[in-house]
Amino acid sequence: MCRLSGTKSKKEMIRVVRTPEGEVVIDDTGRKAGRGVYLCRRLSCLEKAYKEHRLERSLKTDVAAEIYEKLRHALL
């Protein structure tokens, strides 16, 4: 999600996954099965992703407001 490609490792980012069952979850381990996207650990990245529906487009499903709140708390 962050346009700083090549500057951050996966471990420095937050992974969000759409599981095979269709549930959207934050993947703390980086190993959950499913379609995943990475979000940098800056509040500005999260706000841009929310405003532009980037998670929804990348995961090809709706993302509940609860997930955005959990991401916000993880960044603070």
TrEMBL record:
NCBIfam families attached to this UniProt entry: RNA_bind_RnpM
Origin superkingdom = Bacteria
Q: Which InterPro entries does the record cross-reference, listed alphabetically? A: YlxR, YlxR-like_sf, YlxR_dom
Q: Which residues form a coiled coil?
A: none
Q: What is this protein called?
A: YlxR domain-containing protein
Query: Known PANTHER family for this protein?
Result: BLL0784 PROTEIN, YLXR DOMAIN-CONTAINING PROTEIN
Boundaries of each YlxR domain copy? Answer: 7-72
Q: Which organism is it from?
A: Megasphaera lornae
Could you tell me which Pfam families the record lists for this protein? YlxR (PF04296)
